[in-house]
Amino acid sequence: MGLKKGRSATRLNTIAPSLTRVGSLTGLIQRSLSPRLLTATSGFAAADIQQQVTVVGCGSVGSKLSLHLARAGFGAQTLVDNELLSPHNMARHALLDHAGWNKAEKTREALDALGHDKARAVAQDVVAALTSEGGAVVEHVLPSATKLFIDTTASFRVAAAMAQSAHLSGTGLRVARAFLIGSGRAAVLMLEAPQRAVRIDDLYAHMGALCRSNPTLRAAIGGDGATATEVFVGDSCRSLTLSMPDTVVSRGAALLASQVQQWLVDGFPLQAQLLVGTAAGDGIGMGWHSNDVPNTHVLQAAGDGGWSVRVAGTVALTLRADSEQWLPRETGGALLGHVDALSRTIYIADVVPAPEDSERSPEKFVLGTRGLGSALRRAHADSVGYLQ
Questions:
Q1: Which of 25, 35, 154, 232 gets the most CB atoms within 10 Å of its CB?
Q2: Is the pLDDT of residue 171 over 60?
Q3: CB within 8 Å of 157: residues ≥ 6 apart
Q4: Is the pLDDT score of 22 beyond 60?
Q5: How far apart, in whole angstroms, are the C-alpha atoms of residue 74 and residue 44?
Q6: 247-272 b/e with 16+ CB inside 10 Å = b?
Q7: CA 87, 91, 92 angle in degrees (round to 5)?
């Protein structure tokens, strides 16, 4: 049994042009790789892909976050990192090139290959730029149209420079910090309030207070017996000294990038946010929680060596509610906070209620002592040693 030659030839003649058209279309799509195509494919066709983003740190977390954004079409990035790729970086880095190349430049090349010709690389120490007095120096890492400045270095030096820098308060600029903690059991994303009404250092204090009420977070970041110094002040998560598989880094980095991506698509919230992802019991999934943070109250100690007191908005609300509850009597309690001698800053982040044997009257308040010592020690421990 066979087909007639005439019919077979006719069918082939009909199919051949179609195959040619399909091949041409495929070639056209391949040749037309562009930010707009990436955005449309990602489902964000209406998004503004011209938004300028500065990514500080192009290590394991930063490179993945940068490429996640770029593949969604957001490639107008300034990439800042003064370090070189090393062979051990290949265990967790988003790139496959190794030894000897600057991390920012190689990440920029990856973005350029995706059609992002506006990506820039700055092989410079961001601390020097943030603490500089000249605007021309910081312009390299923070172009005037920058919408988001996000640090992924996990460096204490960078966090301290960010907190004190006078260059990050521009109108329309939002400042963020993204990192993994507790050997990747927690992914943390901090977003400052507009005009820095809540800063990165305030959000660290807020995270310490959040650990008291969130045992899951507390266990995630302190479950390996890390001290408060290691948890909150550790200078970088060096990939050679901090053992963690690429799957864990990728899991956390994807969550961080997904939230940043959502901000770029839908707009930034009007308040500061502390977002935390914690590993599920099976060690595979992560739960993601968002916490809105009210504005900080700043009290300057004039004439006292430049010290300042930064009172968390949550504490201010607690104090006001307690005062109203006990009117017309005086009231009080114990404050929990953190002292940074280098920046001469005292952070008031939480409150321990007054003990039952406290005395309140319209004329005075006397703080009781029954159980106060144990309550303060427990608060200190529950904050992973951050609050005192």
A1: 154
A2: yes
A3: 127, 235
A4: no
A5: 10
A6: ebbbbbbbbbbebbbebbbeebeebb
A7: 120
